[in-house]
Amino acid sequence: MTIMSARIASIILGGCLAASVFSGPVFAIGDNSSATPVCKKGEIYDQKTKKCVKQQSANISDKNRADYAYSLAKAGRYEEALAMLDTIKDQNTAEVLNYRGYATRKLGRTDEGISYYLQSVKMDPQYAKVREYLGEAYVIKGQFDLAKEQLKTIKAICGTTCEEYQDLNAAILNPSKI
Question: Closest Cα to residue 132, out of 112, 113, 153, 115?
Answer without folding.
Answer: 153
